[in-house]
Design goal:
Elements: H1 3-38, H2 43-52, H3 67-73, H4 76-84, H5 88-100, H6 108-120, H7 124-136, H8 144-155, H9 160-172, H10 180-192, H11 196-208, H12 216-227, H13 232-244, H14 252-264, H15 268-280
Length: 281
């Protein structure tokens, strides 16, 4: 372990923790902890925290920033220097900051650049994210083939996001031929890993008989799993299923309850359907 480098990273990440308080604490402490592990404390912990990287508990607001947060901005050159020197943790961290607009101004081009650098060095999370960015054309020229390439790499390491997005690629023939059964298999694998959108997509596939035999009861079951994770589309569809008695007993009361859940979160389709229910009495 390089003890000097350890203390250097300790200083800079501790500054980030102090600068952003509770909203940014988990984001910073994960970066800090991961770097300690990189210096040689415990490889097993490294694998655990690697999955949790870039997951802030709140949003950073530039309004009302204090001296501590301003001081924290001075640490960005250090992070950029480490990233340019090839440190994969710094590259992924910097990409996450540009991606989210935390600390620095949001810049999807720079986010894509640093995610790609980290991805080339084997960061699974970076591979998954750069795959998504190629798929959507975020900060980088849209390229379905490149997207599928990076997603497949990350999926090979059981990254739930990558597996779920691969399912979407198979479902829509993006970067690969359209294969509903393959899409269903990807969604199922990601759903078992707890991926909310994949669970919603499982419900959609069952509801529409795509890659699997149509089964409204199974569709509702998967929608419920996704709804428990606050997936708005799943909650909306449960409202529609309750309203029409599809895969579940017909219940206007349940329909209103599901529509209200989505409406309370300002989901336009939920608000519309709730309005219709009130209009019809």
């Amino acid at each position: 372990m390089n003890i000097n480098k350890f203390f250097t990273w300790t200083k800079h990440y501790f500054c980030i923790i102090l600068g952003f308080g509770n909203n940014f604490f988990s984001f910073a402490i994960l970066k800090f902890t991961r770097k300690i592990v990189c210096c040689g404390f415990n490889g097993k912990i490294f694998e655990f925290f690697q999955l949790s990287i870039c997951a802030p508990t709140g949003e950073y607001s530039k309004q009302g920033q204090d001296d501590a947060s301003i001081t924290c901005l001075t640490e960005i050159p250090f992070l950029i220097g480490e990233a340019k020197n090839g440190d994969v943790t710094a590259q992924y961290t910097l990409a996450g900051l540009y991606d989210s607009g935390l600390v620095v101004a949001k810049d999807m081009g720079l986010a894509a650049q640093w995610y790609r650098e980290a991805a080339k060095q084997g960061s699974v999370e970076a591979q998954a994210r750069v795959g998504e960015m190629y798929l959507e054309g975020q900060g980088i020229k849209q390229d379905y083939d490149e997207a599928f390439y990076w997603l497949r790499l990350a999926a090979g390491h059981n990254n739930a996001d990558a597996i779920a997005v691969m399912g979407w690629s198979y479902q829509n023939g993006l970067g690969t031929s359209q294969k509903y059964k393959k899409a269903f298999q990807c969604y199922k694998k990601a759903a078992k890993l707890g991926h909310a959108q994949a669970r919603y997509n499982m419900g959609y596939m069952y509801a529409n008989g795509l890659g699997v035999q149509k089964n409204d009861t199974s569709a509702v079951g998967w929608y419920r799993k996704a709804a428990k994770q606050d997936n708005l589309k799943a909650q909306l569809n449960l409202g529609l299923c309750s309203l029409h008695g599809t895969g579940v007993a017909q219940s206007d009361v349940d329909a209103v309850e599901w529509f209200r859940k989505t409406a309370d979160k300002e989901y336009a389709k939920g608000q519309y359907n709730l309005g219709i229910m009130y209009q019809q009495g």
